[in-house]
Amino acid sequence: MTEAILLVGGKGTRLRPMTVHTPKPMVPAAGVPFLTHQLARARAAGVEHIVLATSYLAEVFEPYFGDGSSLGLHIEYVTEREPLGTGGAIRNVASRLRSGPDEPVLIFNGDILTGLDIPALVDTHETSGADVSLHLTRVEDPRAFGLVPTDPTGRVTAFLEKPQTPEEIVTDQINAGAYVFRRSVIDTIPTGRPVSVERETFPELLATGAHLQGMVDSTYWLDLGTPQAFVRGSADLVLGRAPSPAVPGRRGDRLVLAGATVAEDAKLTGGTVIGTGATVAEGARIDGSVVLDGALVEAGAVVTDSLIGAGARVGARTVLHGAVIGDGARVGADNELRDGVRVWCGARLPDGAVRFSSDQ
Ligand code: GDD
Ligand code: MG
C-alpha cells in the first residue's frame, strides 16, 4: 500500500471563527497544523502519495504543505465545488489514484488523532481478503459515531451511523475513521452527487454480500471535533501519549515554541503548548492547555485544560478551567471561567465580570 486519501472537507464551516468551533485541520496541535501528524504517520507507514480531498479552506493547505516533499510525500489537492460527503469525496479523487484494481488504498478522516498501527490494518486487509477493512475502537458512549458490530472472526455484520434509539446501540465498537479499500471498490461509488460512505456505501456493500473486515485496535484514539478534544489531543502529543513523528522537540511537560516569552516563575505543565510570539507573565500557572500564537497570559492567571486563541489576552489572576477563548478576545483580570464556556473571537470581558464564587 503506497497511497492514501485524506478527507478534510465538510459542510458550512468556512465562515466560522476558528477557535470557538470545530478546530480546523490547520490549527496547530503541538506546534504544527494538526493534519501534519496524520501525514507524518502515514509516511512512516510507507505511504508515498496522498490525495487531500477538501471542500473548503483548500487554499490554506497547499501554501503550507505544497507538493508534500518536506514530509517525504507527494501530495495532491482536490477541491469539491459543493461538499460531496465522505463517499462522494472519495469517489471524486479516484482518477488521481495510481493503484491497480486489487491494490489497497488507505483512507482516513482528517479530524482524528490516533496511534493506529497502519501496517497491521493493511495486513488484516490482505490476509482476510476483504473488500474494505476498518479500524474500530471501543468507546463508552458510541452515540456520536458509526457503530460497527462484528462476528467472532472480525467480519463486519452491520454499520449503524449515529444510532438514535437505545435498541440500536448493539456494540461499543465504533468506526475509528481509517479504512483500507480495495481500489476497485472505490470505483463503484456513484459519481456527481453527495454520498455518505457511512450511511450509504457501507450498508449497501454489506447488503450485497461484500466482505467488510473490522480490526479492533485499542491504541490511542481521539476525535478532535471539539475545542476541548483538540486541547486534550495537543497535550497528549506533547506528553508523548499520542504518537507522532511530527512533534517538534522533545516530549515532556511543555512545548514552548520559538519566539514565545515565558516568565521564569511561570509554571507550565501537563503538555501545555505556548505558541510563537505568545507571552506568559510572572506567576501564571498553565496546565494541559494550548496558548496560540501571540496570546498574552497575564500575571498570576491559572489556566487548566483550556484553549487560548491567537492574539487573545487573559487578565491577571483570571482562572480558566476547560474554557475556550476565541482568537483576539480579551478577558479582563479576576474572572473565573469554567466548564466548556466559549468566549467568542474578538469579544471583551471586563475585569471581575464572571465568577463562580460569591466571596470576592
Ligand atoms: N472532502 C470532504 N467532503 N470531506 C468531508 C466531507 C465532504 O463533503 N464531509 C465530511 N468530510 C470529512 C471531515 O472533514 C472529516 O475529516 C471526515 O470526513 C468525517 O466527517 P465528520 O463530519 O467529522 O464526521 P463525524 O465525526 O460526525 O463521524 C465520522 O467519524 C467518526 C469517527 O470520528 C464517521 O466516519 C463515523 O462513522 C466515525 O465513527
Ligand atoms: Mg469528526
UniProtKB/TrEMBL annotation:
The Nucleotidyl transferase domain, residue ranges: 4-236
Protein known as: NDP-sugar synthase
- InterPro entries annotated for this entry? GMPPB_C, Mannose-1P_guanyltransferase, NTP_transferase_dom, Nucleotide-diphossugar_trans
Among Pfam families, the record links this protein to: GMPPB_C, NTP_transferase
Q: Which domain of life is it from?
A: Bacteria
Domain Mannose-1-phosphate guanyltransferase C-terminal stretches? 254-333
Protein source organism: Streptomyces ficellus
Q: Which family does it belong to?
A: Belongs to the transferase hexapeptide repeat family.
